[in-house]
Amino acid sequence: MRLSFLYSFIDLFYPSVCAACGRSLFQWEQVVCLHCRSLLPLTGYEKQAENPLATLFYGRVRFKAVTACYFFSKDGKVQHLIHELKYRGNADAGVFLGEALGKTLLEAPLFQGIDYLVPVPLHPKRERQRGYNQSLMIAQGVASVTGIAIGTQFLFRSANTATQTHKNKEDRWRNVKDIFILRNADVLKGKSVLLIDDVLTTGATLEACAHTLSKVPGITLSCATAVCAGQ
User: How confident is residue 174, by pLDDT bands cut at 50, 70 and 90?
Assistant: First the structure.
């Protein structure tokens, strides 16, 4: 009873709000309200080997499977969630997105047998500025649902590159080409790795990560993101 009163008192001055629509959350709601959860547009791509995201990488890098959890649209609820995660310090939004992604992967045949989740790394300077790596937050959500281990000891970013947001496909690739470093490669020999990122647009960052990881003998690579462009 006292604990419930304390939470109510805190919410009076610091109300929890939905990361997708901004309205106050009820006590039984977390991060995203139930109404918004029902409206977030799932892609269903985890069930399709040759989906539109997989075709982005044809002739560029070999992924066993590619998926994203939700479709991203301008000014939509998913965009609000990503903005909360990347620009407003809301790490819980990343964990929420990861949990949703993890649930879609649980029964997806294409994504069985994964040994490690490898989040796309941030440069240490950028991570200090943001307070966390948004891809790691998503990976933590996936791990909490699937039980797959997170491997942050393998891939590192050597340069603090400019944001990809307003760049075209060619500029995005030049921005991230050859900036990732591989360590502890022996651990990954013969393993199945799932790259995790927040948004898939042109796929340049994931391609650069995959080229680096592909140096490991016998490695199998897939990738999954929280959101992608679409409906």
Answer: low
Domain count, the chain: 2
For residues 33 and 129, state if they share a domain: no
What percent of the residues of the chain are helix, what percent strand, and what percent coil, each to the nearest 5? 40, 20, 40
Helix axes 134-146, 91-106, angle to 10 degrees: 40
pLDDT at residue 229 in the model: 87
User: Does the global pTM surpass 0.85?
Assistant: yes
Question: What is the C-alpha to C-alpha distance for residues 158 and 37, in angstroms, rounded to an integer?
Answer: 37
Contact between residue 138 and residue 119 where contact means Cβ atoms under 8 Å apart:
yes
- Domain with residue 189: its CATH number is 3.40.50.2020
In the predicted structure, residue 9 carries a pLDDT above the cut 90 = no
Residue 204: enclosing H or E segment and its boundaries? helix 204-213
How confident is residue 13, by pLDDT bands cut at 50, 70 and 90?
A: very low
